[in-house]
Design brief:
11 helices, alpha/beta, TIM Barrel, DUF72 domain-containing protein, DUF72, 275 residues, nine-stranded parallel β-sheet, UPF0759_sf
């Protein structure tokens, strides 16, 4: 039984981590979203450095390249996929899951392409799929079809919970920017596998972020009692407090599930310190 928590990145100007930032971040959180791999496949040597800077229990959820998911829409792209898989090999078991984020135009008519793609993927990785077409959330047949495809492949459905964020109008520049960019979709909270992955977007106000995640505290605690090992990523529009909030979420879940191991205390970040 383990809960992984983390943020959308491991470096942010507001955090003031010393170099190498990943080593310090890994003392605060035990997982991270690998969003940068969506835009460019990293050098294998860079990935090896990521492994060296993180403890064995740290986990990466790495996004597949956009050439595969958005440009080729899961058909073709074998060369790019092979290069990506080769590049991330040094992470070994630190790769928690490969994250297949699909564009909003990828709808129920494309489910067959997803099923075929999942069948072609190597079995030595875990896979997690994020869809953004509204029909997958509002049309029961499309929901059931997608869930069946994912379950058949042993893949997880990744929800991006933006409901708390969109409850009231934005109040900061970062919130106004996120208001135009983040998906506004119905909430999904069911797990398909023993390793559910949740992405949660709060507000720049910590109290509102914490209030909005309370249903997830209960759900994650229930999953842990069932023997699942969830991963939760905490986002806010400016992400200035994200590492602190991720640790707070872990602490709230641990209060409900006392057998959950505590996160290690982070080492001092040096001067100036975090936050």
């Amino acid at each position: 039984m383990r809960l992984h928590v983390g943020c959308a990145m491991w470096t942010h100007k507001a955090w003031r981590f010393p170099a190498p930032a990943l080593r310090t971040y890994a003392g605060w959180c035990n997982a991270v979203e690998g969003n940068t791999t969506f835009y460019a496949t990293p050098a294998r040597s860079s990935v090896a450095a990521w492994a060296e800077q993180t403890p064995p229990g740290f986990r990466f959820v790495l996004k597949l390249p956009r050439t595969v998911t958005h440009e080729r829409r899961l058909t073709g792209g074998a060369e790019e996929l092979h290069a990506f898989l080769d590049a991330i090999e040094p992470l070994g078991p630190r790769t928690h899951a490969l994250w297949i984020q699909l564009p909003g135009s990828f709808g129920p008519a494309d489910t067959g392409a997803l099923a075929a793609f999942l069948r072609r993927l190597p079995a030595n990785h875990r896979y997690a799929v994020e869809v953004r077409h509204p029909a997958f959330f509002t049309e029961p047949q499309a929901t059931a079809q997608l869930a069946a495809v994912l379950t058949g492949a042993g893949a997880e459905w990744v929800p991006f919970d933006t409901t708390a964020f969109f409850q009231t109008p934005p109040t900061s520049d970062a919130e106004r920017d996120a208001w135009t960019k983040k998906p506004r979709l119905p909430l999904r909270s069911e797990a398909l596998t023993g390793h559910p992955i949740i992405r949660y977007l709060g507000r720049d106000d910590q109290a509102r972020t914490v209030a909005g995640w309370q249903p997830w505290v209960a759900r994650v605690a229930a999953w842990l009692r069932e023997g699942r090992s969830p991963t939760v990523f905490i986002h806010t529009p400016d992400n200035a407090d994200a590492p602190e909030l991720a640790r707070r979420f872990h602490g709230e879940v641990r209060a409900a599930v006392p057998d959950l191991p505590a996160l290690p205390e982070p080492e001092p970040a040096g001067q100036p310190t975090l936050f």
